[in-house]
Amino acid sequence: MQRMLIIAGSIAAAVLLILANALYIVPVDQQAIVLRFGEAQYTVNATEPGMTEKGPMQNAPAGLHFKMPLLDDVKFFDKRNMGYDLEADEIIAADQQRLNVDAIARYRIKNPLQLFRAAGTLEGGATQLGFRFTSALRAELGKVSQPDIVSAQRTALMGRVRTNLQAEVNTLGIEIIDVRIRKADLPQANSERVYERMKSQLKQKVAQYNAEGEGLYASITGEANKQVQVITAEAEQKAQVLEGEGDAERNRIYAAAYNKDAEFFAFYRSLEAYKRSIKAGTPLVISPDSEFFKYFKSIGGR
Fold first, then answer.
1. 59-60 vs 39-44, strand pairing mode
2. Tens digit of pLDDT for each residue in 123-152?
3. Do 210 and 236 reside in the same domain of the chain?
């Protein structure tokens, strides 16, 4: 009886082991390939099913599935977005400047069967991705100068790297979502030399701007002085014209007054001369018979 129980228990254990080996679960964030003797039979929850000579391979939904015990093997691949962190590497830009570039790529496995056939495992696919990522990055960064890599041109540059990398990894069944340069620094040995060169270039620009400013100042000052001279000459000419017109008007008035009463006009002119000439405390030595004092004798000058 005890022997029968042992046999029954062994059979039950073997059945459970076979059932455990026959059932498998594929979560919604995973995709899988079912292999039989190393040959792909179908995919489960794959983003893109594999292709066979007859057309697309069968692609089962996620969940609980059955496979042939001891004959079938299941390879799981992540369906989520993943990141590949490229180790910092020295890259030579188009202007022969050396940069230590640290970059990262975001990707996902689009066709697990294609990745399995090209690399065998997820780790093998990641290794090949790293080689091709480095190659695409070197090829694209080698076309531009160092300032373009570290400036606002970086976004467009990363777009070109992503396009080139996608073309390289199509055979792996991988879709590149994004590529970013996290850091691009000069090697320590070159930093001081580049810094000194930048200082020299900035000093040259400062000297150039100063020279241009002084030249512009001299030009503006010269033009202003020229305009001042022109305006002053025009004003003096206009003043002379106005003064001549005033003198002419004055003479006309004097002449008109003289023609009306010559004696009164002479008397008025003498009074004006007295007012301008005879000042308080100013001695005058003039003969009493002088013509200057003729109106002191009488209004008629006699």
1. parallel
2. 899 999 999 998 888 888 888 777 767 666
3. yes
**In terms of domains, do 217 and 293 share one?**
no
Six-digit token string for 138: 């070197």
Range of the structural domain that residue 256 is part of: 199-260
DSSP 238-293: HHHHHHHHHHHHHHHHHHHHHHH-HHHHHHHHHHHHHHHH--TT------TTSGGG
Q: Where are the beta strands (DSSP E) in the chain?
A: 23-26, 30-36, 39-44, 51-52, 55-56, 59-60, 63-66, 72-78, 82-92, 98-109, 174-185
Give the position of tokens 């000058």: 301
Which residue type is seen at 170? Answer: N
State the pTM of this model. Answer: 0.55
Rounded Cα distance, 111 and 47, in Å: 6
Q: Do 182 and 227 reside in the same domain of the chain?
A: no
Q: Locate 118 and state its tokens.
A: 């090209």
132-166 as b/e, with b when 16 or more CB fall inside 10 Å? Answer: bbbebbeebbeebebebbbeeeeeebbebbbebbb
Mean residue pLDDT of the chain comes to 80
DSSP 8-state secondary structure symbol assigned to residue 61: P
